[in-house]
Amino acid sequence: MTEPHPFDSATALIATGEGRFTAVTSKPYANMAGPFGGVTAATMLRAVLEDERQAGDPVSMTVNFCAAVKDGEFSVTTRLIRAGKYTQHWAVEVVQNDITCTIASVICGQRLAEFSHQSVV
To answer: E-strand spans in 34-98?
Structure first.
C-alpha cells in the first residue's frame, strides 16, 4: 500500500455528525503562525465535498481568514444554505478553542450536457 500524499493527509477529515468534521494541522503545510491559508481553504472545500448532501462540482469559493489557526485539532462545520435544481450554496466555518478562525462560502453546480458543433472543414 502506498503512503498518502502529504496534502491528502493535511486535508484529512473525520466525520463527527451531519456537516461536522474534525481535522488536525499538518507540519508540512505550517508557517510561523499556523497552517498556510491554502491548505485551510482546501480542508474547508474537502468538508463540503465529503458532506453527504453535496451535489455537483465546486464552482466558486470565497474564504475569509478571521484569526490564525493554531497547531493542533480544529473543527469544520458545513451548512447547506440553499439547494436548487442545479446549484447549492454552502457556508463553512473553522472553529478552534471556541474561536471562529475562518469562514467560507462555496457554490456547487450541476453541469448540464452542452451542445457542441464540429465544423466539417
So the answer is: 57-65, 73-83, 87-96
User: Residue 41: which of 86, 89, 7 has the closest Cα?
Assistant: 7
How many residues would you count in the chain? 121
List pLDDT tens digits, range 44-72: 999 999 999 999 999 999 999 999 999 99
What pTM was estimated for this model as a whole? Answer: 0.89
- Burial label for 56, CB within 10 Å (0-12, 13-18, 19+), is middle
Single out the residue of 108, 99, 4 nearest to residue 46, CA to CA: 108
3 state SS of 105: strand
pLDDT higher than 80, residue 3: yes
Residues 109-120 pLDDT 10s: 998 777 777 777
Which residues have CB under 8 Å from 118's CB, separation 6+? none
Beta carbons of 58 and 108 less than 8 angstroms apart: yes
